[in-house]
Amino acid sequence: MRLILDIAVTHIVGRGRQTLVAILGVAVGVGFSVAMAALMQGGQDDLIAKLVDTMPHVQITDDRRTPPVQPAELAFDAAAIAGLRPREDRRGIINPTAAFAWLKEWVPGRVAASLTTQGVVRYLGRDVGATVVGIEPKAERGVSSLVEDFVDGSFEALDVGGNNVVIGDRMAGRLGAGVGDTVTLVSSSGLSRGFKIVGLYHTGITARDEHEAYILLKSAQILDARINVVNEIRIRLDDPAAAPAVARRAEARLGYKSMSWQEANEQILEALVVRNVIMYTVVAAIMLVAGFGIFNIISTITHEKARDIAIMKSLGFSRGDMQRLFVLEGLAIGLAGSLLGWLLGFALVYALASVHFELNAGGRELTRLPVAWEPLHYAIAAGFALASAAVAGYLPARKAARQPPVDIIRGAT
């Protein structure tokens, strides 16, 4: 084996310029594959982190996936009911205290109840449509990352009590209001009440920063004329991956629609899977192109060294030895290109991570390109490179090893 390795090195060094071009081709392929994978994986991780951090892992609302069975359906064999809805939709979660207590008994995480309603925030003749969320600040800290996003004032000011409100800085900008100003909240039921701004938050998500306002739960119930009503229970789990199982159990027991963050973002997650398939297909295509360069070199070597191959076979080298010889040459080029490609890939990823800019993409603010420093990306790129190099070396070696040595020495074609 040592002799075969020495011969392989001699062949590769003997065609230094072509070998260098092939190594550079593999290196460029590996380097750009690593950079592309790091950028796409970083974007995916950043998006999922945003989804996990900014929304509840499980959200239980007062909706139902299927309407309850009506008495007419029980009394008659043929009954069709459509558009079933109370004249005034003032529904909420029935007996929320019992539901809340049952969830806290077994849910591996934190639970918070809230009342969400639509309304208008008014200040000095300016109106902004808003989703008004009534919360209990102590419980909300356990399920929301909003506490960490304040740019003025504080979330703790809600604990003081009274008619206080915290809003997004974008909403404040549209209203021309700031901390300490009093705005008027008008609910969908037509009731209005003055609230003092005690904090401004900035999540980086435009829809939240422009159209959400948080007040105390009791204040929201009074404002919406829905005393003691809760229409949403939010859960934040210790393990976000357990959200589907928790949602199924909660919905089976309570009967209300329980949606995990995975279900709420199902289309996004499916798109990420498709994107990953496309990414690794492109990586394989890049490595395939680099493999053609290796194939060209090994084919040239086998053609030029045909007589050497014949002499070696006549001296006792087997067909398998010849195949191993040229496969080793292909793998040597692939390995050298992979190592150089790792350095190039690291440099590219470092450069991408250093780029600083201001961009509002899809309602999310970005200041740096999200990149992932994953050793797996380097291993996958090198794996594709070595696989293509091995195939590129095996194909011409297989053909050369089959040629009878006598015909080669006699000059037969």
UniProtKB/TrEMBL annotation:
Keywords: Cell membrane, Membrane, Transmembrane, Transmembrane helix. One of its GO terms (cellular component) is plasma membrane protein complex. One of its GO terms (biological process) is lipoprotein localization to outer membrane. Its main location: membrane. It is a multi-pass membrane protein. Residues 19-252 form the MacB-like periplasmic core domain. InterPro entries: ABC3_permease_C, Lipoprotein-release_system, MacB_PCD. It is found in: Cell membrane. The chain crosses the membrane at residues 20-40, 277-298, 325-355, 375-395. The keyword Endoplasmic reticulum does not apply. Residues 281-405 form the ABC3 transporter permease C-terminal domain. The keyword Cell wall biogenesis/degradation does not apply. Belongs to the ABC-4 integral membrane protein family. LolC/E subfamily. PANTHER family: LIPOPROTEIN-RELEASING SYSTEM TRANSMEMBRANE PROTEIN LOLE. This is ABC transporter.
